[in-house]
Design goal:
It is built from nine helices and eight strands. The chain is α/β, with parallel strands linked by helices and 232 residues long. It folds into two domains: 157 residues, P-loop containing nucleotide triphosphate hydrolases (Rossmann fold, 3-Layer(aba) Sandwich), CATH 3.40.50; 53 residues, no CATH class. Strands 4-5-6-1-7-8 form a six-stranded mixed sheet, with helices on both faces. Strands 2-3 form a two-stranded antiparallel sheet. The chain is globular, with a radius of gyration of 17 Å. The protein starts with 15 loop residues before the first strand and ends in a 12-residue tail after the last helix.
Length: 232
């Protein structure tokens, strides 16, 4: 059984594209392939017109493609500041530059009070924010975000939305965003791609996709109101 079939879309610099779909749709599998952690049987991945299908994840990261993970992928025994700095060092930053980058991102993600805490001690919401900080530490042109808002409390969501908008408008980063919160996706995304059973069901402007009856059917078996969807 194929996890994905004939999936094709583009992510441009300075835009946020939502990737949604019901459980098992293939969302995380697609991000794994785009970031180099899984290899496709056919097809190719291109970045800035160059075929990167055979590139390892580290080479893609150095070239400007970063990602977050649903389950952390943090260095549990290191503190929060060290986790961010190591990510910057991994793409060639010098020691002092990596330290400055870590300080900037601690402020951006509101993690300054956790700078000296071990990553393993963080609650889920703050661990998710640390995952975002680690990805941003690589200074990406494109950022693939797999459930980055998971575990955030309701008051933490609006500041996170501001960060997403800043990545697009102030830094020109292209963001692919997976999240279960459809209203969050509609609020921040320029376009939405809907996966269902490994195929692109619908793609288009955010609100048009949300209101598409085929999307409601894929999530809820025909209901006209979409609330949320789970992980791939």
């Amino acid at each position: 059984m194929q996890a994905l079939s004939d999936v094709s879309f583009e992510l441009g610099r300075g835009e946020i594209v939502g990737l949604i779909g019901p459980n098992g749709a293939g969302k995380t599998t697609l991000v794994n392939i785009m970031s180099g952690f899984d290899a496709p049987d056919t097809g190719r991945i291109e970045m800035e017109g160059e075929d990167i299908t055979s590139w390892k994840p580290t080479k893609r990261a150095t070239a400007g493609l970063a990602r977050t993970f649903q389950q952390g992928h943090l260095f549990a025994g290191m503190n929060v500041r060290e986790n961010i700095a190591v990510a910057a060092l991994g793409v060639g930053a010098r020691g002092r530059a990596a330290g400055r980058r870590a300080a900037e991102l601690l402020t951006l993600l509101d993690l300054e009070h956790r700078a000296d805490s071990e990553a393993r001690s963080l609650p889920h919401g703050e661990a998710s924010k640390l995952g975002v900080a680690r990805a941003l530490a690589t200074d990406p042109n494109y950022l693939l975000m797999d459930e980055p808002a998971a575990g955030l409390s309701e008051p933490e969501v609006p500041p996170f939305v501001e960060i997403l908008n800043s990545l697009r408008s102030d830094h020109g980063i292209g963001v692919l965003l997976i999240d279960h919160n459809i209203e969050l996706i509609v609020e921040v995304c320029d376009r939405i791609v809907v996966l269902d059973q490994g195929r692109v069901l619908v793609a288009g402007a955010a609100r048009e996709v949300r209101d598409n009856p085929a999307v409601a059917a894929a999530y809820l078996g025909g209901s006209s109101v979409i609330g949320e969807a789970g992980d791939a």
